Every structure is written in structure tokens, then in C-alpha cells.
């Protein structure tokens, strides 16, 4: 089943690319570059939709539609579509060869269901005009897809890889909590991004010159609302955006302390020093990118790298949880 394992690895790499592309589209304000779905003004490419795009530009030259934004959005859709086909192939192969694959077809079929739901979220992202809850759910769906593919690849690879790992039942709970904390932090980071709250605090470590600035938590974390508005339709205030940003920072501190402690435990466990080092390195990278995004006013390259770093950190925690549960 070498072909099957290579297919899973290809899907894993492509998923990381799709997640990063999604961040690039979102951060470059290209999410409505094509205001319909799955095509662009009903066409297969922005090139074929040039007349419609030009007509929109004539009416709203500073609006969300442009040729560059349309291409960004559609390239993301093309890659996401290719990923969907790959996961469909993985699910079919796992079912047809269920006696030869490790663990059966359950996980690939779950992945297939998730990717279908992701397609629906992608459609709703456009048709619901970038509603924060839907955009955040789409981001989390991408991260969940990546996590399941990491687990699937490790599961298939473990049939042929017999590296030594000490029995570490005592670390299972700690590894799971680390994974949960990172997932929560990614959700909070997604909420920052989808609400455009990344620059609500432009200083560090203080926020607006204070450790605890004025904040409005009620409207900040109301889930069912339009972009930039409260649930009642009023403009979302700066104090709400500050609350979103500040909570993400506080959670980053909690994650840093916890993962640092977890990494120390891994360094002392035979066979786990490598993954402990990887977690430390990715954590340091994420901290540096986060601070850099604040102090340098969110340069696009750093912001996209911060999203990709989050995906890699999550993957390392998934890999750790897989290893501590191996028999």
C-alpha cells in the first residue's frame, strides 16, 4: 500500500498549503473576490469572468472585487477542489483495501465527510458575506482536516516504522490537554483575524499603553452577528476589538507556559526529546511571529506565516498524542 501512503502524504502537504492559501486570501481581503460559488460570476476562471469583474469595478472601484482578488480567491478554490478529490481517492482506496490498511476505512470516511462540510462552509463564507462565525468555522475545519490527515499518515506509516518510544501512559492526559489548549488558541486567533482585530493593540507587551485596557467582552464574543457589527446591527466598537485581541494574547501566555512545561517532560522521556524540541521550536517561532505582526503592523507575509506556524504547531501536538497512545 505504498501508493496509498503516498496519497495520504500528498493530501497532508496539500492541506497545509490550502490552509496557508486560505489565510492569504483572508488577510489580503480577497474573500469576496468572486461573490458567488463555486465559480466566479458563474465562470470557471476570473479570465472568463473579466467582463463581469470590469462592470463591478466601474460601479465600485474600491469594493471587494478586483481581478487580482478574484484570482487569489479562485486559486484557493482550485487547490481546495484538488484536495477534495485526493481525499475522495483516499476514502475509496481505504474501503476497497480495508483489510490491508491500518485501522480500517473509518478515519478516511470521516475525512471525506469533513471535506464536504468544508466545501459548504466555503460557500457560506461567500454567500453570507464573511460572517465571522462561518469564516472562523471554515478555518477550524481546515485545521481539523490537517489534524486527521496527520493522524492517518502516522497510522499508516507506523506499520513500517518501529522506532523506539518509551511507554508513557502518564503523559497521555498532559499531551491531550496541550492539544486542546493549542486548538482553543487557534480558534481565538481565527476570531481575531475574522474580526480584523489584529491591530486593536499596536504595542507589546502592553495593549494601548495598559496591561488591562478598556474592553467590551459581551459584543466581542457574540457569535451570531455580521462582520463589523454587534448582534443588534450597530458598529462593533474598538473596545470589543480590543477584548478579542487581548484574550488571544492572554491565551498565548497560557499556551506558552504549558507547552514549555510539557516539552521539559518530553526531554526527560526516552525517545521523545525530538518531538519536544520540535514543539519548543514551533512555539518560539509562533511567539516571534505574533509579536512581529503587532510591532510591524501586520505585514502580509508574517501574518500568513503565523497561520502556517499555528498549523505546524497543531500538527506536532497531534503527532505527540498519536505516539503516546501507540501500543
Structure summarized in a few sentences:
The protein has helices spanning 2-27, 50-59, 67-96, 106-127, 132-157, 172-194, 217-220, 238-267, 273-295, 300-324.
- Structural class, from secondary structure content? mainly alpha
Distance between the termini: 22 Å
In angstroms, what is the radius of gyration? Answer: 21 Å
Counted by DSSP, the helix tally is 10
Strand content: under 5%
**What overall geometry do the principal axes of the alpha carbons give?**
flat
- The pLDDT mean sits at 95
| Overall number of strands | 0
**Contiguous uncertain segments of 5+ residues:** none
Largest sheet: none
Q: Report the helical percentage.
A: 55-70%
Number of domains: 2
Order of H and E elements: HHHHHHHHHH
List the helices and strands and how they pair.
Elements: H1 2-27, H2 50-59, H3 67-96, H4 106-127, H5 132-157, H6 172-194, H7 217-220, H8 238-267, H9 273-295, H10 300-324
Helix pairs in contact: 1-3, 1-5, 1-10, 3-4, 4-5, 5-6, 5-10, 6-8, 6-10, 8-9, 9-10
